[in-house]
Amino acid sequence: MKLEYAYSGAARHRRLTIEGMLWSDPENEPPKELRDAQEMLRRLGVLMALAMVLAMIVIGLG
Known about the structure:
single chain, elongated, 1 helix
């Protein structure tokens, strides 16, 4: 069974682009506050992982 798609016959509009990016596109970079928060959470994640490993070692020895 073949699916049917509606076709309006209208021509597609082409936008002025450079390598797929519109001239009006904003920079794809988060603000400094968000980057700082992400870095802090990344460090917290590493610290929590190390704390869990240490806790398992302490529990295993106890």
